[in-house]
Specification:
The chain is built from 12 helices and 10 strands. By secondary structure, the protein is of the alpha/beta class. The strands form 3 sheets. It has a 6-stranded mixed β-sheet, sandwiched between helices. A two-stranded antiparallel sheet has the order 5-10. It has a two-stranded antiparallel ribbon with strand order 7-8. Helix 4 runs parallel beside helix 12 and helix 5 crosses helix 7. It starts with a helix and ends in a 22-residue tail after the last helix.
């Protein structure tokens, strides 16, 4: 009886070893790298929009193959990112963007007005624009026109943010991967005073079709930026760009996730996550002018999507900290490399 039990135990052990090896091989084949494995994504409503429908799968089609198809679709998004910066911050905040999330964009540009020897790769010195807040509207206009002239046919989606915006580019690509760039899309964090607009600091994204329509408005004799000053009641660059797009019949599309949570956030994570924190700051006005009432809330534990795209007012040091937390820190069990248990730590003598 002992010999029989031993043989049964050995057989189960062999099955277990073979099963683990099979999982490792499948994950290495379908993820492209054996160290990364994200089982929680299989339940994500976001990925359900990207993944092929269950009915279309063959009976032997593994989940990992579906994940690979989704990854290929997301990676096929051709994204240009341009960052609003200036001579006083390009080598601090701008460099932090370059060294962190900026590398995930297919093309990264830094828009400034100064041409000097300390430029970062991708720096564009725009002619005839000023520095400071008073120059932002002109700089934004010339930046968008530059992007259209040089890159319209090379990329599908065009994202603008500030040099103190932290962006999770992979989540941005996921959001637009199910949309057609040939249709006019304009997505970001919506605000409303006299008119509705998208926060420039939180970042906003245009489809290729919207970029073309924006260029038509900006190049027309009736300058939409100048007429927009009266229409929006100010010279804020994000409000003026919204005015130009509205004149082209490009309307704001909701960027909320499947749970009604925000993906673009105009403040730091703590001001959104901590209930009541926003009201104690100079940014409390955002609570009054946030316009997407389909959202559950913009502060507290339910403020932000699990697939959030951006946060604003992030210092250079915080950019690097967030990048570690987003891309390197992970919970035990979420990667296959966690199967390699660490050796028992010895106490010091």
């Amino acid at each position: 009886m002992t010999g029989s039990s031993s043989r049964i135990g050995s057989w189960h052990l062999l099955q277990l070893v073979c099963g683990v090896l099979l999982v490792l091989l499948l994950c290495k084949k379908f993820t492209g790298q054996a160290g990364h494995f994200y089982p929680s994504l299989y339940r994500s409503p976001e990925l359900k929009k990207v993944l092929p429908p269950v009915e279309a799968r063959g009976p032997q089609d593994p989940v990992m193959e579906r994940m690979e198809k989704a990854r290929q679709r997301v990676n096929s998004v051709k994204l240009l990112c341009w960052v609003m910066t200036g001579s006083d911050t390009i080598n601090t905040k701008g460099r932090a963007v370059l060294e962190t999330w900026g590398s995930q964009c297919n093309k990264l540009l830094f828009m400034t007005s100064v041409n000097d020897k300390t430029q970062l790769p991708g720096t564009v010195a725009l002619p005839g624009v000023g520095e400071g807040r008073e120059g932002l509207a002109g700089k934004s206009k010339e930046a968008w026109r530059y992007v259209y002239k040089h890159f319209r046919s090379d990329y599908d989606w065009f994202y603008k943010c500030d040099d103190d915006t932290y962006t999770v580019v992979e989540n941005l690509k996921l959001m637009v991967s199910g949309l057609q760039m040939a249709k006019p899309y304009y997505l970001g964090f919506p605000l409303h005073k006299k008119v509705e607009w998208l926060s420039g600091g939180a970042g906003y994204i245009l489809s290729g079709a919207s970029l073309s329509l924006l260029e038509q408005q900006m190049s027309s004799p009736s300058n939409c930026m100048e007429s927009g000053v009266k229409a929006v009641g100010g010279t804020s660059e994000d409000q003026l760009i919204s005015h130009c797009l509205r004149r082209a019949n490009v309307l704001i599309t909701s960027s909320l996730d499947a749970h009604g949570k925000n993906r673009f956030l105009p403040l730091t994570p703590e001001l959104h996550l901590l209930k009541g924190a926003m009201a104690k700051t100079e940014y409390k006005w955002i609570l009054d002018v946030y316009s997407d009432r389909r959202s559950k809330q913009i502060e507290g534990s339910e403020c932000c999507s699990d697939l959030a795209i951006s946060f604003h007012y992030i210092t250079a040091d915080a950019q690097r900290t967030l990048h570690y937390l987003v891309h390197r820190l992970h919970v035990f069990g979420s990667r296959l490399s966690d199967l390699e248990l660490p050796e028992v730590l010895e106490t010091s003598a």
